[in-house]
Amino acid sequence: xxxxxxxxxxxxxxxEECGVFGIFGSPDxxxxxxxxxxxxxxxxxxxxxxxxFDGEHFHPHRAxxxxxxxxxxxxxxxxxxxxxxxxHNRYATTGETAIxxxxxxxxDFAFGGLALGHNGNxxxxxxxxxxxxxxxxxxxxxxxxxxxxxLIANASGARLLDRLVQALRQVEGAYSLVALSRRKVIGARxxxxxxxxxxxxxQDAWILTxxxxxxxxxxxxxxxxxxAGEIVIIDKDGVHSHKPYPQVRQRPCIFxxxxxxxxxxxxxxxxxxxxxxxxxxxxxxxxxxxxxAVIPVPDSGVPAAIxxxxxxxxxxxxxxxxxxxxxxxxxxxSDEIRHLGVRLKHNANxxxxxxxxxxxxxxxxxxxxxxxxxxxxVRNAGALSVHMRISSPPTAHSCFYGVNTPSQQELLAxxxxxxxxxxxxxxxxxxxxxIDGLYRAMxxxxxxxxxxxxxxxxxxxxxxxRLTDKDGGNAQxxxxxLVTPA
Amino acid sequence: xxxxxxxxxxxxxxxEECGVFGIFGSPDxxxxxxxxxxxxxxxxxxxxxxxxFDGEHFHPHRAxxxxxxxxxxxxxxxxxxxxxxxxHNRYATTGETAIxxxxxxxxDFAFGGLALGHNGNxxxxxxxxxxxxxxxxxxxxxxxxxxxxxLIANASGARLLDRLVQALRQVEGAYSLVALSRRKVIGARxxxxxxxxxxxxxQDAWILTxxxxxxxxxxxxxxxxxxAGEIVIIDKDGVHSHKPYPQVRQRPCIFxxxxxxxxxxxxxxxxxxxxxxxxxxxxxxxxxxxxxAVIPVPDSGVPAAIxxxxxxxxxxxxxxxxxxxxxxxxxxxSDEIRHLGVRLKHNANxxxxxxxxxxxxxxxxxxxxxxxxxxxxVRNAGALSVHMRISSPPTAHSCFYGVNTPSQQELLAxxxxxxxxxxxxxxxxxxxxxIDGLYRAMxxxxxxxxxxxxxxxxxxxxxxxRLTDKDGGNAQxxxxxLVTPA
Amino acid sequence: xxxxxxxxxxxxxxxEECGVFGIFGSPDxxxxxxxxxxxxxxxxxxxxxxxxFDGEHFHPHRAxxxxxxxxxxxxxxxxxxxxxxxxHNRYATTGETAIxxxxxxxxDFAFGGLALGHNGNxxxxxxxxxxxxxxxxxxxxxxxxxxxxxLIANASGARLLDRLVQALRQVEGAYSLVALSRRKVIGARxxxxxxxxxxxxxQDAWILTxxxxxxxxxxxxxxxxxxAGEIVIIDKDGVHSHKPYPQVRQRPCIFxxxxxxxxxxxxxxxxxxxxxxxxxxxxxxxxxxxxxAVIPVPDSGVPAAIxxxxxxxxxxxxxxxxxxxxxxxxxxxSDEIRHLGVRLKHNANxxxxxxxxxxxxxxxxxxxxxxxxxxxxVRNAGALSVHMRISSPPTAHSCFYGVNTPSQQELLAxxxxxxxxxxxxxxxxxxxxxIDGLYRAMxxxxxxxxxxxxxxxxxxxxxxxRLTDKDGGNAQxxxxxLVTPA
Amino acid sequence: xxxxxxxxxxxxxxxEECGVFGIFGSPDxxxxxxxxxxxxxxxxxxxxxxxxFDGEHFHPHRAxxxxxxxxxxxxxxxxxxxxxxxxHNRYATTGETAIxxxxxxxxDFAFGGLALGHNGNxxxxxxxxxxxxxxxxxxxxxxxxxxxxxLIANASGARLLDRLVQALRQVEGAYSLVALSRRKVIGARxxxxxxxxxxxxxQDAWILTxxxxxxxxxxxxxxxxxxAGEIVIIDKDGVHSHKPYPQVRQRPCIFxxxxxxxxxxxxxxxxxxxxxxxxxxxxxxxxxxxxxAVIPVPDSGVPAAIxxxxxxxxxxxxxxxxxxxxxxxxxxxSDEIRHLGVRLKHNANxxxxxxxxxxxxxxxxxxxxxxxxxxxxVRNAGALSVHMRISSPPTAHSCFYGVNTPSQQELLAxxxxxxxxxxxxxxxxxxxxxIDGLYRAMxxxxxxxxxxxxxxxxxxxxxxxRLTDKDGGNAQxxxxxLVTPA
Lengths: 486, 486, 486, 486
What we know:
The structure is a homotetramer.
Chain A: E1 2-5, E2 15-16, E3 18-24, H1 29-39, E4 47-53, E5 58-64, H2 67-71, E6 84-90, E7 105-109, E8 112-122, H3 125-134, H4 145-154, H5 160-170, E9 173-181, E10 185-189, E11 198-202, E12 205-209, H6 213-216, E13 221-225, E14 231-235, E15 238-242, H7 255-260, E16 266-267, E17 270-271, H8 272-287, E18 293-296, H9 302-312, E19 320-322, E20 329-332, E21 346-348, E22 357-362, H10 369-380, E23 385-390, E24 403-404, H11 412-415, H12 418-425, E25 429-432, H13 435-441, H14 457-460, H15 468-471
Parallel strand pairs in A: 18-22, 22-23, 23-25
Antiparallel strand pairs in A: 1-20, 2-24, 3-6, 3-12, 4-5, 4-6, 7-8, 8-9, 9-10, 10-14, 11-12, 11-13, 14-15, 16-17, 19-21
Helix pairs in contact in A: 4-5, 8-9, 8-13
């Protein structure tokens, strides 16, 4: 008898690691931050934290759990007073030591206190950490966020901005960070703008957050995306923009549109739900076969399936039902019934499947384990033939920019070509959208090979930054996901 | 600053109170019961319990929380050994005293131990309790389930079946019960069959449970529905059926098809998902207006919206996005932002709404509070006109058969006619499916007024049983929902 | 590696099972009850409960833990309003099922609610329970207290007093009970008065409790002992005494004076501390040997050691130091260091031991395991010779009146004569006070063999009541200590 | 109605802050450390931690609570593998932020990991912290222990010993520290040896700990005291001693003998219990008055009272009984019964008090609040006259060496002369032992005014080190007791 951990969403998906939120100028700063983090829960379900500043003291609260569990009880918000706050959701592991890794991190600097959290991953964090420790810095966590802290502490200059720019010049990788000092809320996005960060406004308050859905939940207005390479400083005089780096073409993560972001968010002017429908329609144009029903793999496959069904005229049907109560653990009582596992999350709905030819629409295939079980379930429910269509190209490369990917060896697309993948998951046919099809669906004529419009490294292996740690021999783990023994 | 409790699904919905599961003849009885209860989680989210029997001892575990929280940790299942078990999900209130009300209840009788749980509500439970207490019975809980126990304890006869029949003859109302004795698992359904109960088989084991989805999750086969008024006794010799009452026409609850049951369940031969699509189609035929998009109110409005969209050819669009992380409590930080509450659960997705005429499809209107906020949200997102179509007739009467309904005075359909309701929720037009339209969608030519095919009392006020407690002056509360001070 | 449960005081002692407290007529009824239970903590350390009545509702709170842990947090007392309350400390086992056994128990009767708790044990509880179950009573706990409840429920008469007298006529054994109805607080003591119960007064309030130390803690005045066989009913008109049974000579438990009661309590006119000193002096007169120091085994041996030292003129010295932080569990990490266990509680203090002849004074020897380790420890600290003197006669018989005794087979005094016991625990000499010496120390000329002045069954085997359950074959367990599997 | 926090021992006592334990070379290192910390529980009751090293990884566990609560459950010790470990008990405040302050602290240094805990207080910790932060060090806790860490991180040299010596040269104040690196357990005592530290041996393992009672509990042999100013390094080659500072006369804290240390410990060759008896005897010689009984204020006054009684021939009697179940909080229900508070801990035992002239023997008077209540209680119990004798000189000055003292203004001895103090606490006479009497009891002819043999600053104001932080304006708080808002 063993216990199997099932992630709230899916153990066989890539996972965004983090969501961030910051607000300056509202008497309800912490409450609004909690609401914003709740809207960003899909970006990190295992821990969350808020630090507020009340004009005199910083107030932190960090815990393992969902935002509603951590910040929903009476009094917690009351213990986070002040008109400025930042917050962070984290995809993290459990256990005593992990508590030290929950962001925002806080430290006392010579210039005063500073809290800091980010979404992304530094690809030279281990190298920087090694150098800092040699220099006498003591690390308390295993997050790359603490690398930012020590770089700032060791930078020179009285102004926080000067120190921050010095620190950011030393890092490589992807980051969308928010910080809170005694007088300011600060946002910064890496030079390529891999991870999203937007600016919003609610009455007199300014907001920085990962997605527009975190503005919607509190009724705030979207103002603009923070630009790639931009640092914004928000204080009582308003929003100040700084662009200390040479400008390069931005390359936002294309997987945000395919799976990570919430469908009701709009990033860089593109609505996520509409993008997914366009991808579904393009996918249909590339690879449709005659079937009786289009079945989404819920929940993430639904928008692409709607686009696919609209494009083809084939009925859209709920042939798979998802149980929304799946939590972190569930028991799997013996080998004999171990194969039941997948039905904890999904059940085939026989009525629209029996005696039908169907196409299943999903967003990606990672290890393929879930896909295989779903296909078997659909066949058992009486489907005559099962075709699978995927609204992304094959995921053949690991991500090093703040996404929890299995090692490359575990990726089904690394092990097999498309025909081999089809055999592995047991479908009658399998097709992925093409890279150029994906770019077309995103409103581009095609992928600009010389200067790609998006980061698509997980499909192409074309990484837009140096991978110092990986090339130094630390291929498997991103520092931001590590747990240290002490 | 106040805390608002939000139910996992919706504070403005009717709530099924319970789900039941029983299994006889499997070495994994408790584990399979936990999985079955997990599949029935939508029937009761606040507490759950399992009692197993290992041939010598009964083993109980009952707690407040979701099934995965209560039964997912290592060792809990191991402490529930045996080849027979029953389980129960409960929609209950929190607090110390409520723990005593979590089912299955267990007691030592003269004939041995018996555990018992049911789904439904006895309409003469208070009257029976009063009589039993006068006779020297001591009640430990406030559930009507304990009424069953004392009636059995005070019945005569050495055979449990004889005692059970005596007990059931005294009760009025709706019940689908499962019980576990040293040698048997027992199921019983009230003479009208208001609440569902089905029989399944997994290898050598027999299963009794509320819905077929609890069979699917463990890979069990559906055998048949337990009939109205039937008692089944499962022991080592198989399944024995008893029908001790005069046969009357069954009247299963029609709201199970509209909202309570899971879409992938099949009850009395009707698939719930297909029924909902048929209702949506019928609703479209009765009351369609020209619009640009059909928008389901997620999640329960989705199947009817698909039926509606298919019938009319209007595109089905996800104009409302639901946050699946909403838990039991969330903070509402001040009066000023109190109106944000509803966005905890739903957000309008502007892209498919802006500049469009839309019809929203929902399953019911109870108090109307949620509907009003959703309509406002859709208008704010830019919809030109908003029409609402409801896949049930107006809910104008309370349920006394195991559903948590507000008092009749709080029901919007009790306060207003349809035009008044439309004004209250702020739509351009509002329509409900007609009673006969609903029966047509369920495969009947129309409602048989002399002998209706379903229990539809919440729409018609035509209650199929005596309401002894209500008519005796206890209108508001069903005993099964009470909390007593000690 | 194993975990060893160590009782707060000593796993090798007899344990009083319970303490009771009741108060009528104070606005702070629950708070004063909590304080009283705290003073009685030595009578039961593992669970406690209070039920209050506020003129309209009964309010219960019961939990596992120490009184200060259960009733010390903000708000708990506030949720127990009213001018009347009763409380109970319990020596109980842990686990889910035990919660149902924590007293006071409460039930709704035909005449209204009644809460009830007692100290003692019924020696025919199993037999009564069997009869009640056959008659249709459903038991929810495994306490003998619930037997009282069902007897009262099945008694006739409108007056609670009549029902209570009927119930008490059917029980055998020892009990000092307190009960709370809507209008009264009631106390009752068995016809022999085995367990103590006293009446006190604080301003306008009346108090019933096990020992006078629970009056002292709240500044209440001692009024009188409740008499053996007396029932007192306290209501707004004052204290009413009833003596429904034929009077017999009382036989209070003599072990209360030797070990159970707190030294600052006075029972039946005898101060416990002074009694223990007298026993120590008598012990010295009976069996002194020349030594250099008198060493108490802390804490219970201290008063007798003072009496012994005063009588002999030998210096009283703290040769054993007790760690007062010992809690319920502590780890014993491996076989190799398992023998360390006893030092968790006691450490030999070498300075007053090294090179000395010493006498150790303890109150009793149960299994002898602790005595053996203490003697070894004292020798290792350099004592030249070690003599042990015990302030009670050999404990050769089990108690069936509410004390947790090992089975007779485990008692060292059942296995060996005094010489054998001396060898087992490794002392140079061992002596117990004689039965008549003990009675002399208690102010009697000697034990009245025909009609003993005390219950001394654990020394003499002369049980003052019938032992129906034991003689029926249930020798080992007292019902009040049982845990049932469901 | 308010909640009052009562310290396990006494809110009106000085509190030792910490106990330390380290072990090298035992397969049961963590289990033995837990046992040692349990024996040192009196030195810090509110939090504890252990860090072990298993040859590859460091394993920490730190929590709020008693040692038995933190380390007594199954599995906790198993998660602390390795043959070397250090542990720490702390007198700390509660709350989220305090968790970061629980020792041992751990950090990764350029030379590897190091865990560190100490007993004492640095009198220039704030000044050092300020300088370190200016230099780019980030502090995560508010303990002075972290100052040690950063000093070591910023020291030069590859050898840990060199770095440690550099660090220790910069600190002022009192410390007895233990540290754990990958290859060593290290102990260090400040140049004056204010706080105790002893070396012991158990089979092949070496042990460093605060008191000998922590050796006794695990059956280890006492080897010697660590000398003032000594650094010992224990590795696989044995114990290496280093004395890097110029030698000065040691001045151990005299209050360890009067109150802090356990009576069964021996420090610098003096047994604590015997020392206390000598102080009691000297006190009697200085200030005896004719009385009928000598009454100790339990538990700390007992040894001095024995010495006093032996010296005078007056009977030693338990006139005050202490409730050993007093925990951290207890409710005080209303103003009217607030004066009950003190009886939570002590109760007067009337039998040996009524009609008697008594002397109460206590170890110290801090604020005087408890003394006043005890005197009143003794008078209420019928004592004819009440004299108090204190086994220390008046406590007129704060301690800055790791003891939690009230500010000087709150000390009764700062506000009043002895006659005034007698009036305040309501006794017939009051006397303290003289400074020279105390030194005589400790085996000295008298206090050496030029070079005192002990630190007695709390009596004399003669502080043996600079008080940099205090003189810099931070008089009130020792850094080791601080809690920061973030």
